[in-house]
Automatic annotation (TrEMBL):
It comes from Carya illinoinensis (Pecan). One of its GO terms (molecular function) is S-adenosylmethionine-dependent methyltransferase activity. It comes from the Eukaryota. This is Methyltransferase type 11 domain-containing protein. Residues 185-248 form the Methyltransferase type domain.
Amino acid sequence: MANHCPGLRVHRSMPVLAGVYRCSSSYSRTCAVGSVPSPSEALKKWKTWGRAPRRLVLGLGVSVLAQFMSMADTFGRNSFIASARQKSDVEEILKNAEWPEQFPFKEEDFQRFDESPDTVFYESPRFVTHIDDPAIDALTKYYSKVFPPSNTPGVSILDMCSSWVSHFPAGYKQDRIVGLGMNEEELKRNPVLTEYAVQDLNLNPKIPFEDNSFDIITNVVSVDYLTKPLDVFKEMCRTLKPGGLAIISFSNRCFFTKAISIWTSTGDTDHALIVASYFHYAGGFEPPQAVDISPNPGRSDPMYIIYSKKLTTA
C-alpha cells in the first residue's frame, strides 16, 4: 500500500519502476453515453464472470454500476440511477444512489494477481511520486480548502497508507500528524509527520490508535490495494472523532499486480462507486460524496475524491 500508485513523474532522477500501469484507463475513457448494458444483459455477464477470475475480463466494458443494478433486480429493487458515462459522472454518480441491502462484492473481488506478502513487495523504499505534478497540485489545493488552519489546537490527522510525502499544503503543521504505512524508510523521510507506525492493513486491518483520535483521515491513491476494505473503513470510523472527515483520493494508475481484482477490471466512475460502498457498508458515516478535481482532463492524471464525515450520533 503506502501510496504506491505511481504516475507519470518520478522524484528527481529516480528510475520509472517496472510493473506500473493505468488502471483500466482505456475502459474509463472510451465508455460512451448509452454504453451501460441493460439489467438483463448485465446479469448474464455477471453470472459469466463467476466462472473465471475477474482480472481476465479486463476491458470488456462491464460496469460495476450495471452489476449493482442487475444484483438489485435479483432482489427486486433498483440500486443505482445510471447516467452518461463521462468525466462528470464521478461527481454525479453518488447522487440519489440507493444501495443494495447487502455488500455486493465477493471474496474473489479482493484477490490480486500477486498474492505474495505485501511486506516483501514494500520492503524497499520507493521515493517516487505516484501521480503527476498537476494532479499533486490539485490534491494539495483541495487539502488547503478542507483542512483546519495550521497549528489549530487539538487537531490530529492520520495519513493512512502513508509514504515519504503526503501532499499536504507547504509548511502545514499540527501538533499531531500520524503516518501509517508499510515502509519505515519512507515514513522517516516524510517531513509533515510528527509520528508514524508501520503496519500491513491487509494482514491486520485494526488501526493501532484509540477511539475518537483523529479529526481527519487521508488516504492517497492506495485504497485500491486494500483486501479487507470494510474492516479498514470500520476502523477509520472508530478512530475518527464524531464529525471527523475521511478523504479518500484515487487516480487511474496502480501497481497492477497488487491492486484488487474489482479495481483493475473497472474504470474511474466505477472506482467512485466502489470506494463509496466501503463508506456505506462500514456504517457510521454520512452519505459519501464525490469530487472530481482532475486538473487537465486528457492531458494529466485524473484525480478524484470520495469523502465522508463520521456521524455525530449513533
